[in-house]
Amino acid sequence: VAARIRQCFNLSALARGARELIVPVRLFMNPDGTVRDAKVLPGSSSSQSPFYRTAVEAALRAALDPRCQPLPLPPQKYDSWKVFVFDFDPKNLGL
What we know:
It is built from three helices and three strands. By secondary structure, it is an alpha+beta fold. A three-stranded antiparallel sheet has the order 2-1-3. The radius of gyration is 13 Å and the shape is globular. 17% of the residues are buried. The mean pLDDT is 85.
């Protein structure tokens, strides 16, 4: 999943400080592996950062980008991944 999302998570326009932010996003999935909806989880310790809003926007764009869907998830296990949290962490995404 991270390899697929990495293709759409664009941080090139973000300031250096935004690369240290982790944005947790709850993904609501369709059975075909496409993202139906994405919501940022509240309460991040970085939410007061001036770069956080930009990082949130980049994470939501990546989650919903049709070019990076469907996500490679096993259809037979849909019940276990129909809703899950993905951390948009530039370091773990190799950015």
